[in-house]
């Protein structure tokens, strides 16, 4: 059984019938109520019950965009369009304001159903051609069109007018808001299927090719092209896509290349050998079946190419791997990527919270998940968390990190509830060639990474005007790396995942 | 392993060494810090770990009494008395201000150990007679008295000067902060041992005797004494103490009495019969072995005497029992008690919280406990919750109740953490004769009731200046009665024990 709470969307004065008691008790005769606050109080009293949903009454006035935005992280099931929310077009038919149209489109994108309610204020449009001609029982009790038909027609028109989903979105639709445990690429070998999926990400390899090309041009002046052979090592070569991108960059720039392809997964190595034979690269590429952290290279590299990034940048332990691999990079050698930075932002995500809560333990609330975020509300702009730069030859370099961030919430939004933090990364491959999923700078049409989600055991209410302060730690031990996180403002949370008790990445 | 956090007791400016980072990060060069806030943030970050304790540094200035009071609900293990906290008496020896003395005595009462720390600012007192004379190794490395001995002597003197615990407190010492499930007197029969303990509560029965005496005098004018026989029914007679009190009241006032003693517990009835025989009350007392809710009385009573009260007044279902019993009360008859009221107040009680948390389930956080509250801090004055009046012949009387209470916290206290609510009752037996455990009006030297404690699943932080708003429901179903409770200000809690899922009293 689900319970839908019907609430006005706008910030409004309390209505006589449903808020009478509240007003009387407080001796207040007029008060602007943010309906999200009502929802939030009710939801908290019900201990975040997953059976509790929302139906929003939409009238002619709408609150600010940021205030509206909060609802996209909540279990809104229906938008009840009041007929008096409609305007009248030149022909006398109902229509909606641009802002209402945009809102409704966003609702459709979030599978929120539209319900039309109220008295008809508009004439009934003529029966559309064909609808009733052949089948007079089409609307059984209504041989004459229903009084609300014009509104329905208009809403249906808005729905049909929506842009079709881009191919990538269609592909990802089944992953929306589905929590996945991050990969453990060092401890586990990837499946062939996983390689195959990732290898299809053309955009990603194009960016790598551009980066390698730029590095080759910088490394080898035009007048030295014929006499210089650049040593390039691909560490974590998988089934060869970065080898291909590197060779294409060499061809494109006319630079000579000697490639070492280092890969620890023996299954991938077999496929890699076949590829090299097939492509006739035997003289160019040497395959090394070894973990980059223990391989003894016969010579030093000019360029080290790797793609060991997770959704949060360093979370698949790229820093630890490259620390091992940079031993065989020349002192003036280039690492591609040359740096990567993680980002977070606070979000409302009641669906994710409930899915995690269903496990009924603390450990699942102390785990980061890879997830195609969809039914969420972002509550503040992203901020940088950790940055790693390669190569890093400094003597006392550590991959431990600590950052404290303070987020100012979006303006005119009102109070909100933070269920956790969405995480992203951006990586500088080489100079101006970057790659990433940080929303403001995300590389378009790339599908290798979904965001990461760091949940909070107890969602935190952030009153209007208050910032939220969060602490992130990256901790390292001999056999594992993990994150800890805690909120301290407006109210302290427990430190999540202390000592990596619930979630870690094995070395 | 336990970790003691050493904190200054006073609200103070941050010290250079331990708060340096905080100050620098906030770009604040001077800031008054309430050390309780530091403790609270740390404790929340550590998720209320029961291994976390406090050692308080006591210097020459003390914060307000209410600010100090909060620490008595926290796991304070030691008070570190700085030598500069001491004054100098007329003879040149160290002593403490009255406020310091009072604080130290309170610490001793809470088993908090005193530690003396700092440079000696006072002369070393002469060796007390006898201490070193016979045993020169008494202080092995100090044939001369230790420089801090004068302070120690003074603290020992304060300890020895303390009033001895009253007998009742000594009796109850082992019950301090020990959570007990409330009795289920309707579903279960009490043990003989339980009767014996409660029967020793002389004060309680004296109050009942006074109430019955007053009622008899009101009921039977002096000129009707010889012709009138008052019918008095004791419902829930147990092993007879209320029968005895009633008969003594009759004797004292010279009124004639006919007593029915109704008791459902067959074991108690046997003892009751013996008592009546022993005392020669056969002509005065009729024993009825029956549940008052189903007994068919042969005549109606002038006075109905009962003692069915729990720590929270109505929580042992006195209202439901007396609803059944008032059938055989005359329309103008008197019920003793004539009313009772429950009270609550918010408290800090980290020890109780941790004991409940150790069960690792929600149900134990949704249960009310009978507990001799000791290591707690009361945070606001008590307020009334529910009142029941007897007899209640109104047609649509219900024993369901709902109350919303708003507590203003004690002045000058600062912020605090509420672990739950302490509950009490006060009962009007008859007119000005009352009985109860509500702290401001508690009947002295009565030991039948400890307070009740309603915990909160998640302790609630109440910022300085904010009230706390709490809702209490008394809910009734055909076979059980239960309470639900929830906080809505400053932040909403879940509704505790909804539908009586975790805790109820059976009918």
From TrEMBL, chains A, B:
Q: PRMT5 oligomerisation domain: which residues?
A: 339-505
Coiled coil ranges: none
Q: Which GO terms describe its molecular function?
A: protein methyltransferase activity
Alphabetized, the UniProt keywords read: Methyltransferase, S-adenosyl-L-methionine, Transferase
Q: Where is this site: Critical for specifying symmetric addition of methyl groups?
A: 198
Name a single GO biological process. methylation
Q: Where is the PRMT5 arginine-N-methyltransferase domain?
A: 167-336
Q: What is this protein called?
A: Protein arginine N-methyltransferase
